[in-house]
Amino acid sequence: GAVVSQHPSWVICKSGTSVKIECRSLDFQATTMFWYRQFPKQSLMLMATSNEGSKATYEQGVEKDKFLINHASLTLSTLTVTSAHPEDSSFYICSARSRYGGETQYFGPGTRLLVL
Amino acid sequence: ELKVEQNPLFLSMQEGKNYTIYCNYSTTSDRLYWYRQDPGKSLESLFVLLSNGAVKQEGRLMASLDTKARLSTLHITAAVHDLSATYFCAVDMEGGATNKLIFGTGTLLAVQP
User: Does residue B76 surpass a pLDDT of 70?
Assistant: First the structure.
């Protein structure tokens, strides 16, 4: 089955630093990847849609300069949280949809970010 | 703005019992998804419902979709402890055009022995 990986699985950083999270589709090509954020005991909130070779589309209220998304290839998208602050601490999950269609989004295992 | 609401938010049930989780959404869409999330883990895809009247079953779980009523249900039959998890429904934001999902509030299911 389709597998999506994320790296790192967890990260602790100091306030003001930047953190990069990678999302990879391991056994399929994904023209579109999605980034979600989930706070404890809450639902997933879509942050942005990442398209290979073009700029990401951000949802309303998500700061594009703070959450930099790059989708450099058909198997890799990265999310960089710039100048992280404690309120950015969250569970970040990516998902990918196969280039060849299909209705299922495949979710990565998530990255837990803690900003001190 | 698309809103997706689940009911109940929390469900405690005994093993062997049946129950239904409801998912209501506020705009037209013919694509609805159900996911399971275990504590501290990511999402596991359970069902993809693509048309009005769609019904899918896997083990003790059965999902259905009524696009006219903008309602999906996840029915649990003879619950077992292993089903304890949080269940999310998600609706395609633009009726399938973009595959951007809006998630419901989630239902935390606790199955008691």
Answer: yes
